[in-house]
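Bumping my old thread because nobody answered last time. Still need a sequence for this structure:
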């Protein structure tokens, strides 16, 4: 068994071999912080956080860098509209971003560099490209000579001539070639700006990531990742800049997650179907959102709808309920699983096999439900001992944790969906005359402040502390 990843550069699955044994250097393109992130932005954040967690589970030391683009046209426009400085807008939405992804249980990056805090490195990087003849200044702007870099188009698998047909020169641009792209932009009146050898201005979008990769991870890294929309031009241009300067491979593996559609339509402001994570986590348990994102292998498109998310509520509820039932049965019992056992080892093997196949979280989640199935059978069996039940609980917690899914109750109250799930379990137990289990569920809910009332019309419940 060995980890294989799909490399966008070669368009095939390849065995993962780190640059340095036991270590992974990983860069994931972060958000442009002019607004709250939407569900499409959340997918790469969750996906590559899970990739990082899996590497760490397998014993790797991961240096994980994800940037903030805190100066660009969108921030400048927002600044003009709101009459607030660009840095204030960036600070506002960086905080909002960290709050949102924190709710999704995303680990803090090793480094979260900002473009505005990397300006000396960005300017130095551009100057070296100019000195090497790969870039040229014109009227305060600086452009990269795309055709001079022989490998241009290798990531997106397009030829330079094919790319040229879809490019036009914007008003005010004085490029040598339509394919050339901006490394530095001369400041317009009233815009935020920095001093440079070419006059006051600000960096282009692509150059910040090349400079940050070099500063925090080195000339060559293991993994560069992001959404599939970044393959061209952003990542293509990063490769051109970095490899032109260093004459080395920028990243050994390029990983890209698929799009999210909303009710089978592309998400766009014009359609009005943009769903902000900030709003979504007020309506749904953030752990359900994370679970939903991971139910599809990361390279495949994923469709989002309330119906599908409600299905995820029920499915994730089954995981939590199984964990809760196991933990409740073991309360007051200090038993722990006895360590290696054939059954537990098989779950772990199946999980690792799934994740080793290009981080197939969909199949890994299927393994979690195999554990839930067997655990529920064991819970129904009076002969099940505490040690075996602890084994199910511990392996479920271990493998869910690799996916960043928290099964233990995070608050004093239990989710409505979990209450309904437990009531159904209780009703099934009563029909089977398993009154001991039915009583255990009633008591467990009571501990959570949930009071059950058995009526002629069925079971009603209310929160005792409300």
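Sorry it took so long. Here it is:
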């Amino acid at each position: 068994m060995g980890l294989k990843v799909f490399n966008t550069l070669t368009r095939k699955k390849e065995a993962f071999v780190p640059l340095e044994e036991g270590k992974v250097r990983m860069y994931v393109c972060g958000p442009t912080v002019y607004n709250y992130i939407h569900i499409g932005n959340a997918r790469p954040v969750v996906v590559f956080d899970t990739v990082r967690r899996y590497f760490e589970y397998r014993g790797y030391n991961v240096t994980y860098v994800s940037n903030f683009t805190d100066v660009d046209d969108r921030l400048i426009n927002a600044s003009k509209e709101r009459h607030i400085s660009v840095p204030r807008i960036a600070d506002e939405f960086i905080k909002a971003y960290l709050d949102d992804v924190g709710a999704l249980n995303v680990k803090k990056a090793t480094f979260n560099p900002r473009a505005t805090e990397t300006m000396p490195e960005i300017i130095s990087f551009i100057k070296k490209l100019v000195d090497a003849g790969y870039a040229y200044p014109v009227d305060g702007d600086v452009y990269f000579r795309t055709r001079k870099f022989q490998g241009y188009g290798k990531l997106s698998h397009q030829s330079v001539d094919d790319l040229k047909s879809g490019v036009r020169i914007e008003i005010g641009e004085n490029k040598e070639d339509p394919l050339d792209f901006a490394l530095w932009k001369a400041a317009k009146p009233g815009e935020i700006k920095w001093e440079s050898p070419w006059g006051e201005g600000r960096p282009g979008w692509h150059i910040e990531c090349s400079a940050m990769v070099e500063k925090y991870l080195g000339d060559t890294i293991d993994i560069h990742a992001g959404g599939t929309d970044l393959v061209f031009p952003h990542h293509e241009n990063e490769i051109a800049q970095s490899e032109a300067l260093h004459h080395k491979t920028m990243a050994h593996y390029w990983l890209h997650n698929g799009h999210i559609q909303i009710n089978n339509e592309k998400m766009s402001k014009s359609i009005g179907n943009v769903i902000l994570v900030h709003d979504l986590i007020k309506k749904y348990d953030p752990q359900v959102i994370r679970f939903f994102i991971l139910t599809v292998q990361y390279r495949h498109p994923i469709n989002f709808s309330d119906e599908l998310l409600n299905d995820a509520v029920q499915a994730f509820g089954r995981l939590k309920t199984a964990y809760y039932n196991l933990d409740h049965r073991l309360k007051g019992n200090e038993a722990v699983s006895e360590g290696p056992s054939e059954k537990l080892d098989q779950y772990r093997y199946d999980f690792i096999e799934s994740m080793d196949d290009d981080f197939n979280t969909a199949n890994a989640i299927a393994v979690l439900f195999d554990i839930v199935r067997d655990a529920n059978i064991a819970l129904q069996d009076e002969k099940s001992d505490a040690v075996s039940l602890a084994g199910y609980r511990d392996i479920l917690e271990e493998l869910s944790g690799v996916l960043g899914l928290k099964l233990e109750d995070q608050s004093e109250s239990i989710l409505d969906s979990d209450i309904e799930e437990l009531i159904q379990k209780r009703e099934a137990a009563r029909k089977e005359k398993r009154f001991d289990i039915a009583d255990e569920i009633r008591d467990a809910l009571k501990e959570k402040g949930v009071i059950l009332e058995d009526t002629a019309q069925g079971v009603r419940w209310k929160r005792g502390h409300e």
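The radius of gyration is 26 Å. Let me know if any region looks off to you.
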